[in-house]
Amino acid sequence: MADKYFRLVCFVVNICPEPLREFFIKLAKDDSSISYTGIGAYLSHRHPDVLKLKRKRKIRDDQYDLLYPVQGTADVNKWDVTLLITLITEMFDASLQPMQTYLMNEIRGIRNQLQHLPNTSSMSDEDFDIYWGRLDTAAMTLAKEMFNATHEAEFRQKICDAKTSHLPDLGDALRKWYEETIRQMADTIQELKIKLDEVGSNTREATSILRKVTVEKPGPAGDKNKRIKTADSILMKLQASFEATLKEFPDSFNAPSEVADIRTKLRDNHRVIVTGSDNSRYFETTLAAIKGMNYNYKRSVEMHKSSDWRHIDPEDVDLVLCINPFGSFSYDENKAKSMADIFNSMMHTTKEDGDRCLDIVMITDSKILAVCKQLHDHDILEDVVKVFDDTSETHPADLTLECRNQDVHSTCLAVRNNLKVMTCNFLKQYRICSVQVDEEILRKSRLKFKACKAIVLTGPKKCGKTSVAVALASSYEPSQCVLLAEPNDFKTTDLKNTCLVIIDEFAGQYCYSKEDVYKWYSMFNHVYNAITAGQMNAIITCERSKLDKCCVEISPHPLLEHRVDMPERTTTIKQEMVLQNTEIVPDQMSSIHGHERVRRVKHTQASFPSAPTQSARRLKPSQSRPVQCEITQHNVCVNGDKAHCVIRVRGTTCTH
């Protein structure tokens, strides 16, 4: 019998759906969540569940259209075995008996096996009998539960006719069978396409990650090998420095016309040097040009010295902003020489060679650039855009300004260096005294300084204010501290590298100076603004009476609010009293110590016992009154003394 495969197909397509349709309707009627009135109303009620099955791709789009047609209502007679078994097992899972689930899985399993048979025309009689017997058992078992006796007998006759008689509807059955097969294959292909797209996306992402963490280097045969990159913390700092610089750029800046020239050179040559004088705002102009070119800030770095260049790779960086490469205030030969050594490498990276190309922007003073060109001329120094001062009819640009600014730069640099030397000397001078300050006062001062970022140490003269100030400054590196001797010294302070300013006795070291106080008050505004901006901290010392006088005669200042009052310094005095002797020679001093009476007193300046009066000291020996001589010895040791200071006072008293 050569039509064995086709008879099995007719069994699955025409006979098996009948008991499954009755089974679905029976389960729908038994559903307690809704009163069953028809298949359309019931499917509307279970629409959320069907949508979940569609999202999970357990129901195809064409099957969903059979359940919810655009016109009319759903027709259960058009549902095939696949759709019926899916709806029953997914929507009524809790209502199914194990045997019912087994029978439906048996029908679905045979159907899938028939679809995947390699050769449908050469099925053996044995295989046919096995498949037919399994289908017969499953279908008849379900029919006995769903049909009455008459309907069951008719169903049995259909199975017998399908096995032996002529198959008049074979063509229609095969059409349905292959249409279903084609839909399943198309659905499988779509799922595979989605998975392939996902794999491709993951592969591209993995490839991008690998490219970021690998670098190519020539192998022994000339080919390119790859090695894993190591994390470069310096490159991250250069990138963070660039972002910080861009954030400080004011949005209200009115960029001059040179911005267009900078952008043109970057697009054409990928390199440019922006220069100008102090007042031409060439630095802000450069930032304005960069901001308008849509660079990726995560792939942009800020470079200050030549050693940073070895951490820059065109695969990781798109833009290099090189600030003052040849010196900040004046020409720096060492810095310029080291930069000149990498000019060739920098210029090579700006040439379009595949994907390995980056943009380089250098910012420098025009006078410094001129000196660099004379000593280290190179082609990379030729792409220059000069930013001029703002001009008007009343304020024309002074093109000779840069020639006069050299002395200004030199003077400013000398003042800054002098401040550093003075600060180091100041800290060394009071370092020994700073370790002897009272721990409680130091603890209190540290807590207030940490909370307020600015502190005023005040008290009477010689109370140790400066020692406490140096003790607080010991937590900073000496290079991070600056001692301001005059108000104008603050203008020469490097705000980027200075963390602490110390102002010692601003109201006058020896006498109160109202003129100096007014100057300091004017500069206090700038110091206070820098502190509130988080750029630095400040320690100020001032005598209490002078500080109170400033606040009363001038006005209080926010910088002087956080005070720590220090008590007057106390000193230990050892006093020895010896009586009953009229004269004492050095040999007798040892006997005095054996009978000494010791007491400790506190004193301030000039608090030692005064000497006896002249009349008491000049009593004549001829006077007929007993003479009693009193010698008082004071051993005084003050913080900072290297040896004891002995003060002796001799007096006489007369007794009757």
- What's the number of structural domains? 4
What amount of the residues lies in strands?
5-15%
Mean of residue pLDDT?
77
Radius of gyration: 50 Å
Strand order of the largest sheet: 4-5-6-3-7
Count of DSSP strands: 16
Q: How many separate helices? A: 24
Structural class: alpha/beta
Instruction: Please give the alpha-carbon distance between the first and last residues.
Output: 164 Å
Helical proportion, percent range:
40-55%
Instruction: Using the alpha-carbon principal axes, give the shape.
Output: elongated
Q: Name the poorly predicted regions.
A: 397-411, 571-629, 652-656
The main β sheet shows up as: 5 strands, parallel
Notable traits:
single chain, 656 residues, alpha/beta, Rossmann fold, 4 domains, five-stranded parallel beta sheet, 24 helices, 48% helix, disordered C terminus
